[in-house]
Amino acid sequence: MSTELVPALEWSDLDRRAVDVVRTLAMDAVEKAGSGHPGTAMSLAPAAYLLFQQVMRHDPSDPSWAGRDRFVLSAGHSSLTLYIQLFLSGYGLSLDDIKGLRQWESLTPGHPEHGHTVGVETTTGPLGQGLGNAVGMAMAARRERGLFDPDATPGTSPFDHNIWCIASEGDIEEGISHEVSALAAHQRLGNLTVVFDSNHISIEDDTQIALSEDIVARYEAYGWHTQTVDWTRTGEYVEDVQALYEALEAARAETGRPSFIRLRTIIGWPAPNKQNTGKIHGSALGADEVAATKKVMGFDVEKSFDVPSEVLEHAREVVERGRAARAEWDKLYQGWREANPERAAEFDRISARRLPADWTGALPTFEIGSSVATRKASGEVLSALAPVLPELWGGSADLAESNNTTMKGEPSFIPEEFQTKDFPGGPYGRTLHFGIREHGMGAILNGIALHGGTRPYGGTFLVFSDYMRPAVRLAALMKLPVTYVWTHDSIGLGEDGPTHQPVEHLWALRAIPGLDVVRPADANETAAAWQVVLEHNDRPAALALTRQNLPVYEGTRDADKVARGGYVLRDASNGQPSVILIGTGSEVELAVEARELLEAEGIATRVVSMPCVEWFQAQDAAYRQTVLPTAVRARVAVEAGIALGWREFVGDEGVVVSLEHFGASAPYKTLYEQFGLTAERVAAAAKASLAKTGADKGETTGN
Fold this sequence. Notes:
Elements: H1 13-33, H2 38-43, H3 45-55, E1 70-73, H4 79-89, H5 95-99, H6 129-148, E2 163-168, H7 169-173, H8 175-186, E3 192-198, E4 201-202, E5 205-206, H9 215-222, E6 225-230, H10 241-253, E7 259-264, H11 287-297, H12 309-315, H13 317-339, H14 341-351, E8 371-373, H15 374-385, E9 392-396, H16 400-403, E10 412-413, E11 425-426, E12 431-433, H17 438-451, E13 455-461, H18 465-478, E14 483-487, H19 505-510, E15 516-518, H20 523-535, E16 541-544, E17 549-551, H21 559-562, E18 567-570, E19 579-583, H22 588-600, E20 605-609, H23 613-617, H24 621-627, E21 635-638, H25 647-650, E22 655-657, H26 668-674, H27 679-693
Parallel strand pairs: 1-2, 2-3, 3-7, 6-7, 9-12, 9-13, 10-11, 13-14, 14-16, 15-16, 19-20, 19-21, 21-22
Antiparallel strand pairs: 4-5, 8-17, 18-20
Helix pairs in contact: 1-4, 1-11, 1-12, 3-4, 3-10, 6-8, 6-17, 8-17, 13-14, 15-20, 17-18, 22-27
């Protein structure tokens, strides 16, 4: 990009002084905390300050402004890189908050946390996740533009904004970076810029010990627009802010590809003894080195957390620039609203995550007595909801046909040159194709949800949720309304064998706080589960769905009952159960059949369908008592997976019919029979539980 086209950079002595203040605050905060990561915050000080002061469109007085650029610190260990800019820019952090780094109840925890600190767009720390979030945000921005202003000339829509991300060598080394970066290039995400801090240092000191690839060439191979700004190129370290500014503006101007800027820095600059070492990456400098560094920069070595008033006043001028940018945007936005009242009303609704009136009327109902796989039922739900919930979009990690995640008739979200015969579409489409990139898909879904408004879902086989788990955990931590469509949920997938048959996954996922794991019993319970999931805005949910057909029962279509997590599906014939059978997913069928066997023998039996343990545990004690009365101690839980948490529900005298080993390759009915997941075994377990309670008195022999 010609430098004549780049606006002149105003970089005064006060700006240079502010950058040095950032470095002193980073040193002082880590020194006071006794732990932390000062080095990267010191060397990235000019880049972060430049972004917040001169490059990004943001308004500290309105952090949730819809037209703002998004900033993602993927290198979350360098949280001070973000916190100090939020302080200087006027986002509400105080100097005391900087002093409280990593302390109890502070607004400056060890890694940035979304929803905890104003101005933090996503929770980062696990390396590579933020990079994936940034890709998701860029995709969401394009989808949003397609929904509300698709015909505007590029750069003229109120929905045009950019995503800026700072990534470290640790981010780039993590495998997830390949998944999301390859997809970002394939999607031609020209609204995304990644600044790669290439400082050649990690905890184990020189990255040469484990990293030797040409990272810029790697991103060129993906199809990114790449640039290098090397502050060491002259043999001396020169922080050429003008060169970085020109690279950032060139990245902004490149709208057909995502941009990757390699910024060569020296970690911990200008610490005289610890710069360029692993020691300054993740630990305090020590009083002597802090003093020596302050002396180099011309600061009073006796003062800590020293922020000259003129520096703070100068930095806070970004507030007025931000307010002016927002006022200019508001004119464009109000003009759009006046010209598009229906779209504006829809934007208001979707932005607030309000569901439209009577949307549940679109949900399908399946014929009682029919036989339908819950994955197929889920697909029909998605297709039925497509016309009434434009905010709902998603796809699969290359398993769309198996996961049933494609809304019928909806175009793919893809640059036109990459559409295929089976999946036509365009840049504003709706069906997502993640490729075989489950981990990347998880982080991208989080980014979409974080961007705001739209509701994403993503599918794969349940067994591959393991590949997604770090992103799923972060979705739960951030309370994001992401939906996972995980199919082939048990040994019921059959012939593919133990590598594809989840055994421990359900309870491993239920162990994640804040994640709702929903395993519907039939097609109607699946439709009801989708309704309940979409009515929640404060947490992710996982639908665990079957490959095999399941019978559709009477009484499963009631969303109010399903929302309770567990309910009485079939009560004892006399209304007074002697034993309770708890089933989930495909094993509800076994419980229903076992009830018939037991009732035929005069044993009063209740069947409880428990699609979601988390929803059931959230109910008050009175409701739980109506479903699982304490007086009925004979209980059986049945699920085609490990027993683990079911023991909480069956008690000491109950029995769990489970699978405590890996599966095998065979038709699913054979597997259920050979592994003892049958109605007969459930009935036998019920009798065993009754015997434990002393209810089985035996019969007279006649002698």
